[in-house]
Q: What sequence folds into this?
């Protein structure tokens, strides 16, 4: 068996094409394009690259670019003032605080200053509560992208046994909730899970989001399972994920590559969330 590759770059491109049309229609009807505010603190090279990519893609689909770059020495209070200002700006539909922040700054309270209706990363406490209760709201981008990839590949979620390896607030925990809301039976595994291969081999859908390169090998995978690799790591051999791709591709039914799998979907879902936020703020049903 050789797994079918789920091409995240292609799925993301199709989504951006649809968004371009939807954003154009929204702009014509409302008189103003949705606006995405990115807040970058400091000079971290990786964060600068990520934010530049998000801004470029936002402009390409027709969003307004509201970018704020704060110096490394900025205080917690100054960042809070910036976020509060953006929260009250009617031209800003969504706010994204790029993480991680420089040492000495506490991201949690700053994130919670973002109104849930503008929380395009889906990371505030209120957004997490809305997700947990199954209420309408903005969902975290990477977990949403995983669901989108499964749907695009035709993987049946309802009734499936899903195992998510990783329990982070950014990916693992919200993804488990999204899968549950789609009627999957979900197990969350993590660093203290005993006999991990025995757990993961029960999965029809296996998501690796543990942050450990090459953790998931062929012995972890039930034949024919859909394997989604959320991890991305820079190694001497190049970029690789949490999945040992070559061995797992011989067992799985579907698999995402690294790069070109989940990564492109994260930004695409951010763009979709920005349009959704703008619609919610106008009182439009979605």
A:
């Amino acid at each position: 068996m050789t797994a079918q590759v789920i091409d995240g770059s292609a799925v993301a491109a199709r989504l951006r094409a649809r968004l371009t049309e939807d954003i154009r229609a929204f702009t014509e009807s409302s008189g103003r394009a949705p606006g995405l505010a990115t807040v970058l603190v400091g000079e971290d090279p990786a964060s600068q690259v990520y934010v530049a990519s998000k801004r470029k893609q936002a402009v390409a689909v027709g969003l307004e670019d509201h970018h704020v770059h704060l110096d490394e020495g900025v205080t917690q209070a100054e960042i809070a003032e910036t976020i509060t200002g953006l929260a009250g700006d009617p031209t800003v539909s969504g706010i994204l605080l790029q993480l991680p922040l420089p040492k000495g700054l506490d991201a949690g309270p700053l994130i919670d200053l973002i109104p849930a209706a503008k929380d395009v990363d889906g990371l505030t406490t209120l957004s997490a509560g809305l997700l947990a209760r199954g209420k309408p709201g903005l969902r975290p981008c990477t977990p949403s992208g995983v669901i989108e990839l499964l749907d695009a590949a035709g993987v049946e979620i309802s009734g499936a046994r899903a195992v998510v390896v990783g329990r982070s607030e950014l990916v693992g925990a919200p993804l488990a909730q999204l899968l549950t809301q789609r009627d999957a039976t979900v197990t969350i595994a993590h660093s203290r899970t005993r006999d991990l291969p025995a757990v993961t081999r029960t999965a029809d859908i296996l998501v690796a989001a543990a942050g450990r390169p090459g953790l998931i090998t062929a012995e972890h995978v039930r034949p024919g399972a859909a394997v989604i690799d959320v991890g991305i790591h820079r190694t001497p051999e190049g970029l690789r994920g949490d999945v040992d791709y070559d061995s797992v591709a011989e067992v799985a039914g579907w698999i995402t590559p690294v790069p070109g799998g989940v990564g492109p979907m994260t930004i695409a879902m951010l763009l979709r969330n920005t349009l959704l936020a703008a619609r919610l703020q106008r009182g439009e049903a979605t």
